[in-house]
């Protein structure tokens, strides 16, 4: 993985002096902490076994990425604990706004849930405040404890551990959360405050649950003029329900609906529109969302990307996975075109199988001065992640990746790769 980090060995005497007499084993967390902060000096470093070096490198990369992203968001004024967000909360406190809704950003399920909350409060002329919530520069409990707050909705997330409890106790308000992820079940315990309610359904997406909740509440409360109101007019409702079905198919990892992949790809351009602080037209735009248009856009993008990916398929070579331990497959270099790794990898997977190799495609490219290898497979019985995990990476059975050292990568190339590539190209014409 890149260049190995080799730390000079420290004598037992110096280790004890630095650690105040602590045992040698306790120095691990201290040194990692110092290294992660980027201030480790030679005097403070100890030698780590090779098996731990990958962990240290990953921790350093994670820390640099998180700090860089936080700094970018602050510089752009788009951090989710931004001046604009805090000002909106302050004004809501001054005006004694009773209803606050936080939605998971940049999740489309969270944004649609926010749309339904917006429509619900608008129908009933209830003052409310809607804000995006992200794990990057998140809003704090203290920020949200405003005077007069009676109800908080957590849409498509439950927040960090005990977040809802602290918010309820700090503001003496009701907290209602919606989520569909299995990972949040551990947060649901019997000792929650009475005013905290979670709607977690593993068979229903958060946006569908929020739509049903606010629609039902609106019918129960009726509109001020006595007429039974509907959250959406009939024309929009039919279109929105179809969008919700596709969102649910993705959220629950079913991937069973027709053209679901095209729908997913068609959604990509929406990610930049889902922040209600920077985009005041978000609700109007979400009311116009159409699954037919998204699928058409996705199919168009797939066709364009496939055409671009095809240009690399005449440069394939043979890759000895794990120096041959995991078998052999076809690979290609795609420097500067990492966004095509999925399309290229899947085609290489089919070609590898046709050539009698493992049904895996390897796409290799440089990423921030590191050599990265992406593995793809179209065969349900093949697990690419076992290879990726063996080299410090990860992913799923059909899609995984990892960073590989150049000297190690060279050992994966067949000595006759170039000659074999030219000799087999005619064999692939029909695939």
Automatic annotation (TrEMBL):
Polar residues bias spans: 26-36
Gene3D superfamilies registered for this protein in UniProt: 3.10.310.30
Region (Disordered): 1-36
Domain of life: Eukaryota
Name of the protein in question: Uncharacterized protein
Lineage: Eukaryota, Viridiplantae, Streptophyta, Embryophyta, Tracheophyta
